[in-house]
Amino acid sequence: MMKIKGLSGLLIFGILFLGCNKDDDGGGEPLRDYGEVALENDAEIVEFLETHFYYIGEGEEKEILIDTIAGENADKTPLIEQMTVKTIKYNDVDHKLYYLQVRPGAGDKPSSSADAFVRYKGLNLQNERFDVNTTGVTFPLLGGVVRGMREFAIELNASTGFTINPDKTINWNDDYGRGIVVMPSGLAYFNETRGGGQYQSLIFTMDMLTFEETDSDILITSSGNFADPDGILSKDEDVDGDGYPENDDTDEDNIPNYLDIDDDGDGVLTKYEYDKNDDGIADDTDGDGIPDYLDKDN
């Protein structure tokens, strides 16, 4: 895995795609039922996938393109026959996410809490583009993208590396993961109007160029919040092992462990309890199977 920070000022940092799912759209309309919208969106998505195919453009960027199965393209394979379906429970509703690994990639996969550096394109079901980045942009998968993008990103492997040209441009090894994801509005912007309107199902193509795993703990003070890493990667603060560190809060102080500088709330900072002898193994002083940094009584 190539470290993002190793690219220095060549990278752009942006928080993209983040959907707020506000209570209303500012015009007084009540928020629609998530379950009802999920069913409607899924029917629309299936119809789209049954009638469209993908192909690779002839340009230098080898863009992933989508077109209708008709006329000279009548013999093309419909997307519905190539997609993997992933069911995501979000806002207490099961949503179906459809994705295709056009190329899995040869590098490592990011965790759900990594910062990913990607190229992407956003389309609606009318196959109209509403967003694009062709050079690459960094965004945090945890807290910086809509749920559908996060769930797709972790299915792609990154590139094995890159070369820097004399003009400081980058050539990525042609082995990065790339693919297509189609998501219902409940995993996207829901009642916001990005993408062409409220409650819109959306399509994204993505190239997973590289990523960096993060250590996101913060010191919360009256004058502001400051980065204070505890030496444990956010992906390793997923105590229950469900792949999502944001729902693990050992001391139940409403600060998830991946942000909490004192995970067990015993008054001793995690970074001073985790591995005092620097052997790479979390310390367990009382031998009860619970590491000291998660054990208030150690």
Automatic annotation (TrEMBL):
This is Uncharacterized protein. Residues 229-298 are annotated as: Disordered. PROSITE patterns: EF_HAND_1 (PS00018), PROKAR_LIPOPROTEIN (PS51257). Gene3D superfamilies: 3.10.50.40. It comes from Abyssalbus ytuae. Coiled coil: none annotated. One of its GO terms (molecular function) is peptidyl-prolyl cis-trans isomerase activity. Transmembrane segments: none annotated. Residues 237-266, 280-289 have a biased composition (Acidic residues). InterPro entries: EF_Hand_1_Ca_BS, PPIase_dom_sf, TSP_type-3_rpt. It comes from the Bacteria.
